[in-house]
Amino acid sequence: MTYSSLLAVIQTPHIDYTAILPELICIGGALALLLTGALAVRQLPTVVYTAMTVAISVAAVVSSLVLWHIVQLHGAFAAIAKSLAIDGFSVAFVLLASCVLVVAALAADGFLRREEVAGPEYYALALLSASGAMFMASANDLIVIFLGLEIMSIPLYILAGFDHRRQESGEASMKYFVLGAFSSAIFVYGIALTYGATGSTNLAEIASFLANNVLTSNALLLAGLGLLLVGFGFKIAAVPFHMWTPDVYEGAPTPATGFMAAIAKVGGFAALLRVFYSSFHTLAIDWQPVLFVMAILTLLTGAILGLVQRDIKRMLAYSSINHAGFVLLGLQAATASGVSASLYYVFVYAFLVLGSFTVIELVGKRGDRAHPIEGYRGLARREPFLALCLALLLLAQAGAPFTTGFLAKLYVVEAAVQAHSYALAVTAMLAGAIAADFELRVVFLMYGASAPAPAEATDAAPAFSIEGSLAVPDPVSSAPAPGASTGTLASAAVMTGHDLATVTVAGAAASERVEVPLLARAALVLTCGFTVVLGIWPAPLFAFVHAARLLF
Amino acid sequence: MHLFLASATLPDTITFAIAAAICIVGSLGVVVSTHPVHSALMLVMTLFGVAVLFVEENAQFLAAVQVIVYAGAIVVLFLFVIMLLGVDRAESIAADPLRGQRLTALLLGLLVLAEVVLLGRGRWPTGAHSTAGALNQGTKPNVNVLGTSIFTTFLLPFEITSALLVIAIVGAVVLARRPRRPVGGASSPIPSAKGLTGPPEAEGDDTDRGPLQMGVEDLEDSDGLEAGRPGVPATHGQEGSKS
User: Fold this and answer.
1) CA of B181, closest CA in chain A: separation in Å?
2) Contacts of A461 (CB under 8 A, 6+ apart)
3) Same domain (yes/no): A31, A93
4) Using the beta-carbon criterion (under 8 Å), do B163 and A116 form an inter-chain contact?
5) Cα(first)–Cα(last) distance of chain A, in Å?
6) C-alpha dihedral over A348, A131, A243, A227, to 10 degrees?
7) Closest Cα of chain A to B95: distance in Å?
8) Which of A246, A268, A276, B59 could connect to A317 by a Cys-Cys bridge, CB 3.0–4.6 Å?
């Protein structure tokens, strides 16, 4: 066969560039950042890369708004050989991913400068990860979902291990990578079984095959569906696939944790909602009970284990598990209003978690280690602005009225009640109340007692001196042999009184002021403003979510 | 012999039996052999057997890719890593790294076997059509059909795979990079903080962890890379001495 006759055979599909413009901007922007870093004659300051990233992500926001208007005017459509579905639902998630990028870039700038991390890699990876989440959101084919999942996850594995100075960071990266690779393999196997059962990987074709054919035995399809659910469950941190969450959230550098928490939920839930609600809607009677159990386990595990945490990043990890349960509530209802409620919840939660981790990043100080909850005691007096922001965001996470968090919880519970899942709705409210306990405890700590109790303080003093001598190893005075002896002493002290150690770290953290960079302040104002303004005046976001319909 | 293939001729069955035997012997060899290089070579044998099975299924392209990519590239990469880590180091498989690991593996393996047998007995309805049409369309061999579908139906997935390559390169650079200067102002890293204080990060602060944790620390520590790394920064010293 000659070359020209081959060309005649292959009819390449029409490529609609506006449909993938946000993704193209993100990937192209990442390449531009890397090229700038490579071609720069001398090391550019971090703020240059931050400015570029913010500009790129604002461009992605604008292009997804344009796409939104196209969809609202001309209706939804499938693009590029039907592998992408451009509808209100997908564009809403693409818009959310771009907004997450803007806030994450603003929040990360201060951290990168404080920890003296030079170079554009952090931002390039974040942009690539967001493009993966966008592909997941607009995918109309299981293979595109899988590729989006990998493009989103692999940069997240790397970002989790970005901090070379803390061993926990590498550990988190390794754990996330190994477990994530397993979950991806399971997801691919699910795709294979689904393909075997339906003859297609295209979501629309799967839906039409299932609508027009009655399967005499659907065991193969259900097995595939179950494996797909495992893959998604891992990404969104649903119980029992949540094991990695606390360790990875704790170990990853704090701005990366915030970005990961937001973007993984965006991409994971976008694809999960689309696959289960639109492709496998005919099988709802089969997957609803599974999601029922999963949602209850997720809600309760997140809420109960969050109670006993001493590290604020671990606490928020369990809180994020709890929130994933709430989002599952909307999907379990398997109604259009349920999916809208889930979309609303993910929208709200992405900003809440980004803002919360921005505050934690700033309070964490240089070295990114000061994260025990005790360190937040009396923060309101030392850092009124940070304490106010964190209090607002935590109140919203707990579901306080006049915040977006309240409406989000209200809508998903309402969807569950409308679907007659009363047990689930009651469990959700119960779990929400338990989670509110540990979320509000931090608020009380910040605004309540300002200093640790005197008894604790005196007990802590000797341990503090040993800890201090170890924490700042002086290259001149600490010869190996004395270092070893203090090491054993300190380890004994740490083993006997872990509380003391946390109190002393908190005391050390309390002594110096937190520097709040301008861009991080902007990120906080954006997230808190979003939470409060749209909590008091919810009509625009509500209308937006209602316009975000699925294609089929 | 209609057990394995619905319309199997005698040569088909014989080929299948031989290839399957190669696969099974190879995969047993991977697990059983004590020398890592032998394990890697046994893996080549298994992959080769799978390639033969692909040829038998008329998937010539897949068979070629199997040999070129898996046996050719990936196992060679394995061998590189084994050589770099020290080929003369024989692994002792007598001691279990995790307690009860073998028993669990055996039970789970039997469970999977039972599952496969159970699945193999049933006749599962599968979709009549496939997106790209039949594998071999008339005179067109499957290589052409696959190529066509990559540039038509699966154009977007094919193109966005390139993003993964960029991520892999950036990720490798980021993870392999060592910090210029550890945090805290100390200009030189502590020479042998790990050696002085025993195994790094043992039970130090496990107390504040939730009950549902998995131990990947074991995975990290067991390879012995961490301890011997030159640029361990000062803050690691604090971690090591806690344990």
Assistant:
1) 9
2) none
3) yes
4) no
5) 41
6) 110
7) 23
8) A246
Query: What are the backbone dihedrals phi and psi of residue B212, each rounded to the nearest 5 degrees, phi first?
Result: -105, 55
Across the interface, whether the CB atoms of A154 and B171 are under 8 A apart is answered yes
Which backbone phi and psi does A167 adopt, to 5 degrees? Answer: -65, -30
> Are A399 and A459 members of one domain?
no
Asked whether residue A474 is domain-assigned, the answer is: yes
* C-alpha to C-alpha distances, A387 to A313, A442, B87, nearest whole angstrom: 16, 10, 56
Instruction: Report residue A232 as tokens.
Output: 């998604």
The model's pTM: 0.80
Residues A483 and A362 in one domain: no
What CA–CA distances, in Å, run from A365 to A115, A161, A397, B182, B242?
A: 9, 19, 24, 15, 21
**Closest Cα in chain B, distance from residue A337 (Å):** 31
Quote the domain boundaries for residue A535: 16-449+515-547
For A280-289, A343-352, A365-374, which range has the lowest pLDDT when averaged over its residues? A365-374
Nearest to B243 among A31, A314, A491 (CB): A491
Burial class (CB in 10 A: 0-12, 13-18, 19+), A109: buried
CB A83 within 8 A of CB A144: yes
d(CA B48, CA A158): 33
CA angle B5, B6, B12 (to 5 degrees): 45
Is residue B80 within 8 A of residue B37, CB to CB? The reply is: no
**Do A340 and A417 fall within a single domain?**
yes
Contacts (Cβ under 8 Å, ≥6 apart) of B218: B97, B98
Measure the CA–CA gap between B118 and A390, rounded to whole angstroms: 54
Whether residue A522 is predicted with pLDDT greater than 60 in this model: the reply is yes
> How many angstroms separate the CA atoms of A517 and B142, rounded?
59
Instruction: Please check whether residues A433 and A490 belong to one and the same domain.
Output: no
Helix (H, G, I), strand (E, B) or coil at A78: strand
The answer to whether residue A229 is domain-embedded is yes
Query: What is the secondary structure of A468-528 as a DSSP string?
Result: HHHHS--TTT--HHHHHHHHHHHHHHHHH-HHHHHHHHHHHHHHSPPP--HHHHHHHHHHH
| A485/A463 Cα distance (integer angstroms) | 15
Residue A451 has pLDDT above 60, yes or no: no
**Residue A171 falls inside a structural domain:** yes
> What residues of B are in contact with residue A470 (Cβ under 8 Å)?
237-238, 241
The verdict on A362 and A254 lying in the same domain is: yes
> Rounded to an integer, what distance in angstroms lies between the CA atom of residue B51 and that of residue B49?
5
Q: Report if residue A45 sits inside a domain.
A: yes
- Within this chain, do residues A99 and A25 fall inside the same structural domain, yes or no? yes
Domain count, chain A: 2
B51 to chain A, minimum CA–CA distance in Å?
19
Separation between Cα atoms, residue A502 and residue A464, nearest integer Å: 10
Could you tell me the pLDDT band of residue A227, with boundaries at 50, 70 and 90?
very high
Low-confidence ranges of chain B (pLDDT < 70): 1-8, 87-96, 122-140, 178-243
Q: In A, which residues are within 8 Å of B116 by CB distance?
A: none
CB A327 within 8 A of CB A341: no
In angstroms, the CA A313 to CA A360 distance is 8
With H, G, I as helix, E, B as strand and everything else as coil, classify residue B105.
helix
Q: Scanning every residue of chain B, which has its alpha carbon at the shortest distance from the alpha carbon of A487?
A: B241
Looking at beta carbons, which residues of chain B come within 8 Å of A494? 204-205, 242
- Reference A97, options A342, A262, A258; nearest CA is A262
Find the closest chain A residue to B243 by CA distance.
Answer: A491
- Mind listing the pLDDT tens digit for each residue in A376-391? 888 888 888 999 999 9
Which CA distances in Å does A378 have to A284, A374, A450? Answer: 50, 9, 4
Q: What H or E segment, with its residue span, contains residue A551?
A: none
Closest CA to A507 of A464, A536, A472: A464
